[in-house]
Structures are given as structure tokens and as C-alpha cells.
Design brief:
It comes from Flavobacterium psychroterrae. This is Beta-carotene 15,15'-monooxygenase. Keywords: Membrane, Transmembrane, Transmembrane helix. The protein has one domain. The protein starts with a helix and ends with a helix. By secondary structure, it is mainly α. Helix 1 runs antiparallel to helix 3 and helix 1 runs antiparallel to helix 6. It is 92% helix and 0% strand. It is elongated.
């Protein structure tokens, strides 16, 4: 009986050691996966900025603004553009900072905190971009309607017809909603999947009891 008791105690000790090794392996795997996910979030955000920069370079927005002959509008749009780039660069810096923190951390609690912080940062980034998209769309419609000389004839027609004016406003609102929905789906496809995987890692870490 004493020998059996000794075997049971020895088995329990070995079982505990196997559990600790397993948990450490799980932590390493989650750590590696989380680091990879945040790295991709950083890469996608940089590629997104490059895409919009190249798109703006080949667009004819500047020519359209100069055609209106309102330097104050050009100045305002340039300030808005630089402000937008500054905010996005700040977000990218936070993405990179979160990536470095997750890559170098050795603490489970720190890793869990960094995962939650990264998710919030990405969510703020997406909602900022969607909000800026709506603001830019409304401003573009307004500036084009009020200041574009090619719109003079349409302005006169709409001023004489209230129903046509309401219909035009409704169409513009619908276009804005469609544009918002389209980009929301794109962001959900790009970042949503990564965030779900990241949160799944967070839930797995909660099960580990170091």
C-alpha cells in the first residue's frame, strides 16, 4: 500500500509538471500568433496609407479645386488632408508600438493587456476613417455644388423646384450611406478577421493560470 501511495504521489507530481510544460507551450504559441496578427495589422495600415497616397496623386481633385478659383477652399482642403495624414500616422505609430510590446513581452498579463489595447486602437482607427469618409463626402458634395461653376445651371434649376432639391439631397445621403457601408465591409474584411483571432488568443490566455 505504501508503494502504491508513493506511485500515486509521483504520478501527480509528473502530471503537474506535464501540465506546466503544456501551458508554457500554449503561451509560446499564442504569443507567436498574437505577434504575427499585430504585425499584419501594422503592414495593412501602412499599405492602406500608400494606396490612398498614390490614388490622390493620380486623381484630378486639385485641378477641380483650382477651377473653382477659391484659394481659401484649396487651403482648407489641404489643411484637412494634412491633418488626416497626421492622425493616421499617429495610429500607425501605435500599431508599431503595440507590435513591439507584444513581441518582447514575457508576462501573460502584459500580453493580455497589449491584446486588448491593440483591439481598441484598431477599432478607433476604423471608426476614425469611416467618420472622416463621411465628413469628406459631405464636404465634397457641398463644395462641388456651391462653388463649382459647372453646377450653376443645376443650382438654378434646383432653386426653383423644392421637390427636386429634396430628391437631390436624398440621393446624396443615400450615396454617402452606400459609401460608408462599402468601406465598413472592407474594413471588417481586412481588420475584423484579425481582431477576432486576436480576441480568441486573449480568451485562451485567460484559461492559463501561471
Amino acid at each position: 500500500m505504501k508503494e502504491l501511495d508513493l506511485l500515486k504521489k509521483d504520478w501527480k507530481k509528473n502530471a503537474d509538471s506535464f501540465q506546466q510544460i503544456s501551458e508554457k507551450e500554449i503561451y509560446k504559441m499564442i504569443h507567436k500568433k498574437s505577434s504575427s496578427i499585430v504585425k499584419w495589422i501594422f503592414i495593412i495600415s501602412v499599405l492602406e496609407v500608400l494606396f490612398w497616397t498614390v490614388s490622390n496623386y493620380f486623381s484630378n481633385v486639385d485641378d477641380a479645386l483650382r477651377k473653382m478659383n477659391h484659394p481659401e477652399i484649396i487651403l482648407f482642403m489641404e489643411i484637412l488632408l494634412y491633418f488626416n495624414y497626421a492622425v493616421i500616422l499617429v495610429f500607425i505609430y501605435f500599431f508599431y508600438k503595440n507590435y513591439k510590446t507584444i513581441t518582447t513581452t514575457v508576462s501573460t498579463k502584459t500580453l493580455m493587456s497589449s491584446i486588448l489595447k491593440t483591439r481598441k486602437t484598431v477599432q478607433y482607427y476604423v471608426w476614425y476613417n469611416l467618420g472622416m469618409l463621411v465628413v469628406s463626402s459631405i464636404l465634397s458634395f457641398f463644395i462641388g455644388y456651391v462653388y463649382n461653376p459647372d453646377m450653376a445651371f443645376i443650382r438654378e434649376k434646383l432653386a426653383l423646384n423644392g421637390k427636386a432639391m429634396l430628391f437631390s439631397v436624398g440621393v446624396l445621403l443615400l450615396l454617402t450611406i452606400v459609401l460608408f457601408g462599402t468601406f465598413w465591409c472592407i474594413y471588417r474584411l481586412l481588420y475584423g478577421r484579425l481582431l477576432r483571432r486576436l480576441y480568441s488568443n486573449y480568451k485562451e490566455l485567460k484559461k492559463i493560470d501561471f
